[in-house]
Amino acid sequence: MSGSELPAPTPPVVPETKPFWEGTKAGRLMLPRCLRCDFVIWYPRQFCPECGHDCVEWFEASGRGSIYSFTVVRRGEGPYRDTPSYVLAFVDLPEGPRVMTNIIDCDVTQLQIGQPVSAVFCDAGDSAALLRFRPFLTE
Q1: Confidence (pTM)
Q2: CA separation (Å) from 101 to 21, 22, 131?
Q3: Which terminus in the chain has less CB density within 10 A, N or C?
Q4: Domain boundaries, position 112
Q5: How many CB atoms sit inside 10 A of residue 72's CB?
């Protein structure tokens, strides 16, 4: 399934997540990190859920990851109702977070737990792009 076949609803962009969405629009994975305990925060917010500190810095993550778990959704709901089957997955980022996402541009029969993936940013309107992943191809 390619990313263009999946719906790309425009996410709500609020001040505390704006650096993340600006990054996706530019094709960069920006994540917040706590200045006190160095915890990398997911879902982006302006305070640390680990220690409660309210000062974070944004940095550009690698955009790489590995599949932690996945499922093939054959019957979606809402905007995904008329979509052919698609992959919903948890991807572990080397920076620490585990993110829920879609795996696109793949043969679902070839997906494996632990498989390397790389970030893809699918346009979702003027202010954002959705973070999705595709299998990382080595040559």
Answers
A1: 0.89
A2: 15, 18, 7
A3: C
A4: 12-135
A5: 14
